[in-house]
Design brief:
The complex is a heterodimer of chains A (250) and B (788). Chain A is 26% helix and 26% strand. Chain A is of the alpha/beta class. Chain A has a single domain, classed as 3-Layer(aba) Sandwich (Rossmann fold), CATH 3.40.50. The two termini of chain B are 28 Å apart. Classes of the chains: A alpha/beta (250), B alpha+beta (788). Bound molecules: adenosine-5'-triphosphate and magnesium ion.
Chain lengths: 250, 788
């Protein structure tokens, strides 16, 4: 673990949420020439252990920006981000890399698999560098792809590729799984298969999960639904009961 | 097309690193070509002008004592234009402040002014005065080496008489562009000088009234020298005349022409290598560019742009790269050409220098480099033209990878994923991988070729100066002297051992094969000038009967051990007869033939004589010995081995250092160009993969390994291939440089391979360093937002 460890910024109420990923007053401003784009305008957000959160919001509202900052891919213009008792806003490039390596799994709309590696090898890519990974085979079994482990990405369907991406994201047994429109490029049947895989990981491994989607139906599988508009959190709802992904339909 | 032109410039700017790298490779080829051909042309033109203006003769001969009236008969030979008779002889000189003996070549000139042929380019002072037998003109390099000039004087031992000579002028002559002393390999301006003296003075000194011992002539335009030489030889034979030679064999001219020839060889093969690599690089870059611009090409076609317009657009891009390369190459080539020509002019001491940056070279260079780059790119461009617009707008089908042989046998199980990525990338694009390896291998081979010159030179020094010359001095006599003169030399201060030898000119004939050269008689107890076989590394002893031949002469005559050679001696009583070859030995220098000195003297039917004495000397007595030697009348020349060795390293070393530096630079540029382009293309193709890996938590160092690993594997594979290719290139070049006088030995030290590999790795490392910079600026988020 190479996180920058900053005693002064040790999270305020560390005890209360010492397992959470917590963001305070995040802002992100892009400058393109003369124009200033404020993608985030002061967002407070917490992802609790084992929780499944769905993020909804119109295009351009800042969802991806938030998720990327949460995952240590991007840095905020202002605000703080803490994971456990580590201040990620103070971490340097290498610190963020190590945060991603040890604690975060990403799934994107475009699967971003390495075309020259088989399904198993794409997953092994991560298990080789993680501290306490499961085996690549186990991870692929979790997403129902044990039959396809020796296939190259070009030999897999879109849904299968996305499940490989999920297996790759969770194989390191991350505390946090961040998914940006994971079903965006898939039809509804395949999309549900993919969501079911994410749900299973969330339940069985207790991975805190955040899913960005444009599909409001997906919201019913969450513990909590966060709506984002114009760079701010517009509303938060708690679902009394999570609907299983396999029961979803659209 | 206006918009496309804007795009062209933006594209060139975006690819500027790669554009520059290719342009540098093209530039190197163009520079070598222009440098080589400019030097060649300038030297040829300069030499021709020099020969013409100072009326350098075309046929040279001599005799012991030829009556002056014979000159008229020579002039009457059909085809002869002008005839010049002279008296030439060696003499030992005593230059104040220079302890070692110096050899002077006395050459007669008319007191009244320039001779008809072989005129002098007076550099300072004035012509000699009539009636002043003590006035001389010195050749300029020699005068400069001793800081002598008009008004100074020195002493010379001329035919046994000590004479004080006054310098009235310094001059250069087309006859001594490459001024070689007797038995010397290289010019040594300190120890060998040309002394032009009045004809009357030399006639008196050598007792040659109304006679000459040296004759040269020019021919009418278009006359073949061979029949003239035959008649000339016949005419002079009764007067001890021997072997007339055409200008091509005149020693100074031979060296100049040889130098030109080597330049010609270098300036043809090397540019070809650079241009081949440039073609491949332009292909690589254009292929990649077109692959990324598929969509745009499709769009342009959909808008109604014709295939020709699209092909022309990409061709312009390549032409721009080629043009940049040509400009870089032309400038560097012209500068290096001037430098190299001046360097030669310095070595050769031309009184005039015509530097002409060869326009033919320029056209050849520009033409061939443009052609090579365009051809390389054309393959890729044709693919763009062939794309149907609808298909072009779809993303290319995903590359299909296969598990290779390695993984089928379970070998890859041992490899980590990043290494697998690199290996599969190579397996997926084998041709490109092979070309990258080939390009890098060529760079290594050029490095081996350039750096091995050090080894070659050391080898020559070793084999010529150490293995075959154990003596410290060789003393040459004006006339062959009885063998018992040996004892006089043995008695000189510091002399530990003295050995006689005698060289006679001879014709060697086997069937229709023919060679004219020297036949050396050496004593059976010969220790100081051993006949060394470079191949076995042992010394051979001269047999009582028969001859020993250098391998090159044996090959020329087509004989081996046990065969018989017909030999006509061209001196004295001119005996002829069959002699059998008792052994053949390997040597890089000249085409020697050895025979027992006693046997030679018996054959010549003369009382035993020797012309040369080799001396082994205790160096503590050098000063005393030199002083004594300068006083012995019979001594006409003294060769000091240490001085010859120094001159060898000084002249050759300086020349080679330039050559090695220039070519190492070009070869490194080549290596850099290949490595940089390969890495940049890998980066452009795999930026997305690398960004993904960064997202997954790979560090910059780790993704550098993934990116550079692929190219590094190719480069590592290129190293041994390059070393082998370098061997082949060196061998080829050595053979192309072969001459009768001198063979390039083929030697490459293992350390040379080591240095070549180090240079290639350094060039690769530099390009990796540049690309590595870009990895730090990889935009992770943009990649995730877009589909490939
Ligand atoms: N690199 C960038 N430079 C400038 N502006 C940017 C950049 N990235 C994002 N933005 C702007 O920030 C705002 C938020 O972008 P973001 O990608 O977070 O939106 P989003 O909610 O994910 O939208 P979508 O649902 O379409 O993916 C947008 O207005 C976008 O134009
Ligand atoms: Mg988004």
């Amino acid at each position: 673990m190479c996180l920058i460890y900053n005693a002064e910024n040790r999270a305020v109420d560390a005890k209360a949420h010492n397992e959470s990923l917590i963001a305070h007053g995040l802002t992100k401003t892009y400058h393109t020439g003369e124009i200033e784009i404020r993608a985030l305008r002061g967002v407070d957000f917490e992802l609790k252990p084992g929780e499944l959160v769905v993020l909804l919001g119109p295009s351009g509202s800042g969802k991806s920006t938030l998720l990327n900052i949460l995952g240590g891919l991007d840095t905020p213009t202002a605000g703080t981000l803490t994971f456990r008792d580590h201040n990620l806003t103070a971490a340097d490039e290498h610190g963020l890399t190590m945060f991603r390596r040890e604690h975060v799994g990403f799934v994107f709309q475009f699967y971003n698999l390495i075309p020259s590696l088989t399904a198993r090898e794409n997953v092994a890519l991560v298990t080789e560098i993680a501290a306490a990974p499961m085996s690549a085979e186990e991870a692929l079994a979790l997403v129902g792809l044990e039959e396809r482990i020796h296939h190259f990405p070009a030999e897999l369907s879109g849904g299968e590729q996305q499940r490989v991406a999920i297996a790759r994201a969770i194989a390191k047994q991350p505390e946090v799984l961040l998914c940006d429109e994971p079903t965006g490029a898939l039809d509804s049947k395949t999309g549900i298969l993919v969501l079911a895989a994410i749900e299973r990981v969330n339940r069985e491994l207790g991975t805190s999960t955040a899913i960005i989607t444009h599909n409001t139906i997906v919201a019913s599988m969450a513990d909590r639904v966060v709506r984002i508009a114009d760079g701010l959190i517009a509303s938060t709802e708690h679902n009394a009961k999570r609907v299983s992904a396999s029961e979803l339909a659209w | 097309m206006r918009v496309l032109n804007h795009k062209l410039f933006r594209e060139l700017w975006r690819l500027r690193g790669q554009v520059l790298a290719i342009a540098l490779v093209i530039g190197s080829g163009v520079a070598v070509l222009i440098m080589g051909l400019s030097t060649l042309e300038s030297l040829s033109v300069t030499t021709d002008a020099y020969y013409e203006r100072y009326r350098f003769a075309e046929v040279f001969t001599g005799g012991r004592r030829v009556p002056e009236r014979i000159a008229e008969r020579v002039a009457a030979i059909p085809g002869v234009q002008f005839v010049e008779t002279r008296i030439t002889q060696y003499a030992t000189l005593d230059i104040e402040g220079f302890a070692e003996p110096v050899v002077g070549r006395l050459t007669s000139i008319p007191e009244t002014g320039q001779p008809i042929l072989n005129q002098l380019a007076l550099q300072s002072g004035s012509w000699i005065e009539t009636g002043r037998h003590d006035q001389v003109i010195l050749n300029k390099p020699f005068a400069e080496a001793h800081d002598l000039g008009p008004g100074d004087s020195f002493t010379a031992l001329i035919n046994g008489h000590r004479r004080t000579l006054e310098i009235v002028g310094t001059a250069l002559s087309p006859e001594f562009i490459y001024a070689l002393g007797p038995a010397a390999l290289l010019p040594d301006d300190e120890r060998f000088g040309v002394i032009w003296m009045g004809r009357e003075a030399l006639e008196a000194a050598f007792d040659l009234d109304e006679a000459f011992n040296d004759l040269s002539l020019t021919l009418l335009r278009g006359i073949n020298p061979e029949p003239v030489i035959a008649e000339l030889d016949e005419l002079l034979e009764p007067y001890g005349g021997v072997n007339a030679i055409p200008r091509a064999e005149q020693i100074s001219n031979w060296f100049v022409m040889n130098e030109l020839n080597q330049n010609r060889v270098v300036s043809t093969i090397l540019p070809a290598i650079f241009l081949a690599v440039a073609a491949f690089l332009s292909h690589m870059v254009l292929s990649r560019l077109i692959a990324t611009e598929r969509g745009e090409i499709g769009l342009l076609k959909a808008f109604g742009y014709s295939n020709i317009q699209i092909v022309w657009y990409y061709t312009k891009l390549v032409l721009a790269i080629a043009l940049l390369g040509c400009i870089i190459g032309a400038v560097i080539g012209a500068l290096l050409g001037r430098y190299s020509t001046e360097n030669y002019a310095n070595l050769f001491d031309f009184p005039l220098l015509i530097y002409r940056p060869s326009s033919t070279a320029f056209f050849i260079a520009v033409g061939s480099s443009t052609l090579a780059t365009v051809l390389g790119a054309l393959v890729a461009v044709r693919r763009a033209a062939r794309l149907p617009p609808a298909e072009a707008m779809r993303p290319p089908a995903p590359a299909v990878y296969h598990r290779g042989i390695l993984s089928r046998f379970g070998v890859t199980d041992w490899l980590d994923q990043p290494t697998r990525i690199a290996l599969r990338q190579i397996a997926r694009w084998p041709l490109r991988a092979a070309l990258t390896t080939a390009g890098m291998a060529l760079s290594v081979s050029l490095l081996v070729m350039a750096l091995q010159w050090n080894d070659t030179i050391d080898f020559i020094a070793e084999s010529f100066f150490y293995n075959t010359q154990h003596q410290d001095l060789i003393v040459g006599l004006a006339e062959p002297q009885p063998l018992n003169t040996l004892h006089e030399f043995e008695r000189l201060p510091g002399v530990l051992r003295a050995e006689p030898s005698h060289i006679v000119p001879a014709d060697f004939t086997v069937g229709t094969r023919h060679h004219r050269g020297g036949l050396s008689g050496v004593a059976a107890s010969n220790l100081l000038q051993p006949i060394h076989d470079d191949e076995s590394g042992t010394d051979l002893t001269v047999p009582a009967d028969g001859i020993l031949l250098g391998s090159y002469l044996a090959a020329k005559l087509g004989v081996g051990i046990g065969d018989k050679v017909w030999i006509d001696v061209l001196e004295g009583r001119r005996p002829g007869g069959y002699v059998s070859v008792t052994d053949v030995f390997e040597t890089t220098i000249a085409m020697p033939a050895y025979m027992n000195l006693d046997a030679l003297n018996r054959w010549l039917k003369q009382r035993p004589v020797a012309e040369y004495f080799s001396l082994l000397v205790d160096s503590r007595s050098d000063a005393e010995l030199f002083a004594k030697l300068k006083e012995i009348p019979a001594v006409s020349a003294i060769m000091v081995k240490r001085a010859a060795l120094d001159a060898f390293y000084e002249t050759i070393g300086a020349q080679l250092l330039i050559f090695i530096t220039i070519f190492t630079g070009f070869a490194c540029t080549l290596g850099f160009g290949v490595a940089y382009n390969s890495t940049r293309i890998a980066l452009s193709e795999r930026g997305r993969e690398l960004a993904t890996l960064r997202v997954l938590g790979f560090t910059r160092a780790e993704i550098s390994y993934v990116l550079l690993g692929e190219v590094a594997i190719l480069i590592l594979a290129a190293l041994p291939v390059g070393c082998l290719a370098g061997r082949a290139l060196t061998l080829w070049l050595a053979r192309a440089f072969d001459t009768e006088l001198f063979r390039m030995p083929f030697v490459i030290d293992s350390s040379t391979y080591g240095f070549a590999v180090l240079f290639a790795l350094a060039a690769s490392a530099a390009s990796f360093g540049l690309v590595r910079q870009r990895l730090n600026h990889l935009d992770l988020i943009r990649v995730l937002k877009t589909r490939e």
